[in-house]
Amino acid sequence: MDVDVAINHYDTLVQHVFSHPKRWQGDGKFKATNLKEAMKATIRDTIGDSEARLLEHDVATCCRT
Hints:
Shape: globular
Order of helices and strands: HH
Largest sheet: none
Number of domains: 1
Number of strands: 0
Strand content: under 5%
Distance between the termini: 18 Å
Number of helices: 2
Radius of gyration: 15 Å
């Protein structure tokens, strides 16, 4: 995903998650389900499968910067 696409997805995620605060301020200010839905939508739009694994267990293949 290039930077412009990532920024667009981030803007969408922020609007979806943070524009709907919880009515009852118990555990956190915003709903975790909204974040989960927004993340799944981003993954689905990017790679086509919202349930795909994002990180393999083999840490040797990960970027080390």
